[in-house]
């Protein structure tokens, strides 16, 4: 068979692998998010944000290590006042002001809703797309409107480590695409580019091969295109996974299986994972070398990713808390919490690991509390946002800020972090000697059959991940928050014991 032309994809070729369909829902969700993000920017709709035209590709010289110092950053299409860079280097100081519950949020899209963006300043960590360094620079940086509202905010910029969108005309993405070499794309066993996520019936994202020179080009480019502006505290890499073997078994892509070493053969699952992990580690190492000292390097590990990259990162995100649990215990509460515990305690400082939980309506209070209480068992941040479409919510809850003098939920920056510092490790609510961290390290699913408790200076957090209601003696008097968002549950009542519903959590005040 004749080999493909340079840059040819396999979109027109039928899929030919049968499979068990590992993690198909994750692929579908991710594709919907990407498509929604593009639609929001106008790239798929022809609105002023841009026009999706796969035939158009900006031309830039291919990257080589020798030319990395001269790679040109993209020029702003619209000149705006740029806030001054954070010359004080006070990232550690800002993070030191983040107290429990610590809050994170992610707003996707090249042009997020400005009202939601302004509200999102009230969180502790905010992830926005890298394109905002061009599209909305006045919101970013030390003197931008977000940190003017919340001086302790940490801002990270999103960039996918694994794929890109052909014909994406957004400034940062277009500059990146113009420097790519065809040899840096993942190919299938016929030598065609491997298509990763479907955007429209005719278009797909194309996967990058992190075992190639793209693992050096990407960080060099982001340094010169994004970080040099001083508008962001670091880079949030999507797709920092340690298992891509499910790509060998997909039947929903118009490609053959991936051929990561370009030998014309599909690698066995274990070998594919090994090579991918080596390439990802090289990307992160090169990022540390290319970025200024102190720059945050953060990763999204999806539903569950192990501790493979923790030492190279300032944290990992657990995406869509328990979304994959129907696939088995490897995606259940114990497995997710085990990965989260590793991320939150390992890695470089400051550690910004967070758990993202998702529902499509703001009023899913019980699930929100369950996910928040689970997150508070360790030291990470918490995000609760929409599940469908692009992440774009700024939902605020009673449990996010409380006036301790009267025990009432109150949305104000100086009421955040009301729990204060943790007083120790999470422990079995019926056996104070058994620590959650140790129970998770022992393996298995026993931890999700028990109730766990963690003490804070100004309150107590309980989580019941089991399928049964459990009555807990509080060993003293504690008070519920007096809420405004969910006053039915957050009644402000004084309790000496509480019955926790299955898969539930609660924050109680001293």
Identify the notable features of this structure and list them briefly.
510 residues, alpha/beta, TIM Barrel, Immunoglobulin-like, 2 domains, eight-stranded parallel β-sheet, seven-stranded antiparallel β-sheet, disordered N terminus
How many helices in DSSP terms? 11
The pLDDT mean sits at 86
Poorly predicted runs? 1-9, 11-30, 32-88
CATH 2nd-level architecture of the largest domain: Alpha-Beta Barrel
Largest sheet: spatial strand order? 1-2-3-8-10-11-12-13
Helix proportion range? 10-25%
Q: What fold name stands as the CATH topology of the largest domain?
A: TIM Barrel
Approximately what portion of the residues adopt beta-strand conformation?
15-25%
What's a quick, concise take on this entry?
The chain has 510 residues and is an alpha/beta fold.
């Amino acid at each position: 068979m004749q080999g493909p032309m340079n840059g040819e994809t396999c979109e027109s070729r039928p899929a030919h692998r049968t499979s068990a369909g590992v993690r198909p829902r994750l692929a579908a969700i991710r594709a919907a998010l990407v498509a929604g993000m593009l639609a929001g920017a106008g790239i798929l709709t022809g609105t002023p944000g841009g026009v999706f035209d796969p035939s158009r590709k900006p031309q830039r010289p291919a990257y080589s290590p020798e030319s990395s110092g001269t790679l040109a950053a993209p020029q702003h299409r619209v000149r705006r006042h740029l806030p001054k860079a954070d010359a004080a280097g006070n990232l550690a100081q800002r993070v030191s002001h983040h107290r429990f519950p610590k809050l994170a949020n992610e707003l996707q899209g090249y042009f997020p809703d400005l009202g939601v963006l302004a509200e999102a300043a009230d969180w502790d960590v905010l992830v926005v797309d890298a394109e905002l360094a061009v599209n909305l620079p006045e919101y970013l940086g030390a003197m931008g409107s977000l940190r003017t509202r919340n001086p302790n905010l940490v801002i990270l910029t999103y960039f996918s480590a694994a794929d890109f969108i052909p014909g994406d005309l957004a400034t940062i993405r277009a500059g990146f695409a113009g420097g790519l070499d065809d040899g840096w794309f993942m190919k299938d066993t016929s030598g065609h580019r491997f298509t990763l996520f479907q955007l429209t019936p005719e278009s797909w994202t194309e996967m990058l091969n992190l075992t190639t020179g793209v693992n050096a080009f990407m960080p060099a480019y982001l340094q010169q295109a994004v970080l040099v502006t001083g508008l962001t505290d670091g880079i949030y890499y999507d797709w920092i996974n340690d298992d891509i073997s499910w790509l060998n078994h997909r039947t929903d892509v118009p490609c053959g299986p991936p051929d990561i070493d370009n030998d014309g053969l599909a690698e066995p699952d274990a070998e594919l994972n090994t090579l991918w992990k080596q390439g990802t580690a090289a990307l992160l190492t090169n990022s540390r070398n290319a970025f200024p000292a102190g720059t945050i390097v953060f990763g999204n590990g999806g539903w569950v990713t192990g501790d493979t990259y923790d030492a190279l990162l300032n944290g990992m995100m657990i995406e869509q808390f328990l979304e994959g649990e129907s696939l088995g215990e490897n995606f259940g509460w114990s497995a997710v919490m085990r990965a989260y515990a590793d991320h939150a305690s390992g890695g470089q400082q400051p550690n910004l690991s967070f758990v993202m939980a998702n529902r499509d309506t703001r009023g899913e209070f019980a699930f929100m509390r369950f996910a928040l209480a689970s997150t508070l068992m360790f030291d990470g941040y918490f995000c609760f946002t929409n599940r469908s479409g692009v992440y774009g919510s700024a939902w605020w809850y009673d449990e996010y800020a409380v006036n301790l003098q009267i025990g009432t939920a109150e949305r104000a920056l100086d009421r955040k972090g009301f729990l204060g510092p943790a007083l120790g490790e999470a422990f079995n609510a019926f056996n104070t000697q058994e620590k959650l961290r140790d129970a998770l390290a022992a393996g298995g699913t026993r931890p999700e059959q028990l109730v766990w408790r963690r003490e804070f200076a100004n309150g107590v957090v309980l989580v019941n991940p089991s399928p049964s209601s459990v009555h807990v003696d509080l060993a003293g008097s504690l008070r519920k928050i007096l809420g405004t968002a969910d006053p039915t549950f957050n009644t402000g009542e004084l309790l000496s014991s509480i019955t926790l519903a299955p898969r539930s959590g609660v924050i109680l005040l001293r």
